[in-house]
Predict the structure.
Amino acid sequence: MTRSDPKRSVLVSNTSRANLELYTYIVTENDSPQDKLPFRLYLRFYDVRPPICPCVTAYESDSYRESSASSSVVEDVETGVELFLGADCGQQDYSYYKVEPSELMLERGCTTKLKVTLESSEEYIPAAGVIIRAVPVDKAGPCWCRPGVPAQFLSLVQVNRVPKLEVSCSRVYIKLSALELPMNDVLRTRKKLFIQNTGSASLEAKLVTEAPWSVVVPQKQCHMRCLEKVPGADVMGLNLPPASSAEVSMEVSVITKEVWPKPGQVYAKRRSTTSYLRCFNKQQVLLMSIPLMLEIEFPIISTQPSVIDFGFVMDGDTRKTYFTVMHSSTSDIIEVLVQRSGDEGFTHWPRRLVMTSGCRRRVYVQYTARWKHAPSECSLRVQVSGGAGTWCACSLSARAQSSIDRATRLPVHDYTDDTKILPPM
């Protein structure tokens, strides 16, 4: 028995062939075996009704008692003492435990329960016990005598029960890509974990998190099979009985406009933050601390080379080359758009790329010269499709100078493996 679980029930059965009267005596055990005596005298106190007037007949005695009980005059009740001589089980003491009922009659073949309660709030409680004394209702008759039933001893021991907290994981790790964030919105991601109480006592704890994390309890379901949404909280109370567990979810909220870089801003490939899920008991003692790790990946798109220079090109001739597009993402499949702006003599292919992790793709650029004094220039912008294309992008420039000098003429030949862009005939 413990202070957190102070009640117990004892099953008592009458296996004899006679009705028994049961009496209980609470004792504290001896400190050492040397203190044990050959026998000990136990006392039982009971109420004695006041004597009835001798002139009242037996037929009128019941009505006399009823009228006395209904009257407003309080009668003095006498106390009787019964002595019980038995084996020495300890000193009689009722200051720590309570047994209900202390007296009862148990018919033959029947079973009942005795409720034992720990009532003391002291730090030290000695070992105790309950003596259950059984007295037959019919002890003797003509030519027969029923011997007494031996008393039974029930030990009462206080066990020091403690809760034990365990968690299904040692850390919570969530990895996101900045390309997955919805534009002008919030992305919420959850990870489930189980908190267990493997100890022998109830656990009352408090879970505390830090922004941007919150604790979310599972959705509740009513009898109509409807789901009730429960919002997250930074602090959540937890009450776990012994040998039980609770399911909670750790939710992280990422606001897109606070995370995305500004257009043209130089940013790192990854951004990691670590918060903690802390669990405190009622005395504000830290029971555990679990790291909550959030990693956001920011893919970087780059081209090689970053400048294309065709040099002098004879009027009407064509030059063709390519540049390589690559990205730093380790998990995403990225859709890339290639857009051109500038001189119309430049063309490129393809205009849309689908790139997996570690993939490198070629984009072919062709220039057809049209005579003019100024050099021809264009800009090629490679960006991710969608709202993230404002910051996840790169640019390269291409230039050429048309000429009418026949020394710059080259034979018409495509030295690339592209079949989409062909020189003009």
